[in-house]
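Sorry, explain these tokens?

***
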Amino acid sequence: MIRNPWQQVVASLEAEHVPFVFGMPGNAKHFYDQLYDSETVKSVLVRHETSGAFMAMAYARVSGQVGVCYGCPGPGVANLVPGILEAYSGCVPVLALSVRAPQSTEGMGAFQETDHLGMMRPITKWAVTVEKPERTGWTIRRAMQIAQTGKPGPVYVEIPADVALTDVDMPPYVPSDHGVRPAPDPDRVEQLRQLIDSADRPVMVCGGGAVSSRAFEQVRTLAERAGIPVLATPAGRGIMPEDHELFCGSVGLYRTGLPKAVYQGADLLITVGSRMEEFQSAAFSFFPEGAKFAQIDIDPFEIGRNWVPDLAIHGDARLTLQALDELLSQQPITVDSTRLDSLKTDRRAALDEAVHYNDSDDPGGPVRPSNIVRQINEVFGRNTITVLENGASDLWAYYWPHHQVFETGNLVPPAEQTAMGLGVCGAIGAKLARPDAYVVNTTGDGAFQMGMHELPTAVDEQAPVTWVVFNDGALGWPNWTQHGALGGREIATKFGATFDFVAIAQGAGCHAERVECTQDLAAALERARDANDRGVPAVVDVAIDPSDRHPGFIEFHSVR
């Protein structure tokens, strides 16, 4: 069929069942003119290219499919960098597209001529220029394959402007194979069964790799069969419903009392798809004393990268846990019922403590962030996707059981780069991936200011998200460390002049209101939820008590 490369790109995206492209057009002749004729691929017009990359990342995390974004040459591609960097750090499959200066004038200082590949190569699995038009379909298929095979991640494809408009006889497009997964070494799976059988207090920590693998059923089944408590990194949350009797919270910076006790008391630590980076391991200092360590990861580069495992298994998380569960079904182990009974008692105590944590709050007093995350659970219910930022106050949404994820896959976290604004913008991508679910973004006022320009995008796309702003008038985390580490040498962390978030949100067509005392919080969240039910995005701007810090937050900084 006679096509130019952009027509082939659109046909390729259609064949790959890609529903959205997040970005903004530039030259009218390129990509978007061809996208205009597509009946299945919809363009989502963002207000900033970085937002498009953030939305593509969140869409990919929730849907399990590749998210696609587009940036114009030069500054447009540069603006994609924070989102692609975050996707690379978080191992999320994203395809970034752009057009490049023409081959005919390459090196002559053409308009917006830039070394895009130089920007993208360090933060993608593959970055490539389509040099010949007939290679377009092969390149897109290859990019989609690379993004989803092995450790997932972003890829970048660009087409020179003159090549992109050249008509050629295009070869038929062959869709990528999404099902390629490495299976584990059976001998090592047997060794892991033996380690579990000989352990008294095994613990499983699931990271983002377990979620990427969609190992939801396998984690739950294995945990139940072997009686293993499950902990999660932020990227691993949503691997199982957090009201399950074997889920015991998060690790590292994000742990509360019960997770700390379960983790530190383990005599066998099994990590599934997690690098256990600095925030998950407190600069690699949180390790259960005397415990054996088994590491499961799809990427051989990650094996032994931080802690050296007693047993390493290279394999896909879902296939590895499935193989282990099948082995345990054939060779059952004895489950310590006394330990499980004790764990149930401890979980009930932890849940009860969280429920009553804010009982003494003054109804007319300032709102504690711990209360906000609790109320979000109660008001929005089980089928809610929480999209996180990473500030000192909204960090409460990381702390189980103050906040819980009740359905598998219903959490979008930032990765280790924690680019501010990712959650604010990404919430729209999450909603487009799962229109049946409520989507709530928890964000500080600093991060909200980096993404609030996308409120009209949510209105345009009929994506009713609720943004809950934890507003302390500051960059809360840096401000806290200035006081804690620098003895109060406060500089450039408090906002003087600031925005009226309610007025801005209402001007964009959203429901919005301000909450200044505890007694008004639940009703405001209910009105936001009701607005979402009507198809209207909502902003709840909450004046918070900035002194509400979880003990785990303070402990982490004392050892880091």
Summary: The mean pLDDT is 93. The chain has three domains: 2-169, 186-348, 358-559. The two ends are 60 Å apart (CA to CA).
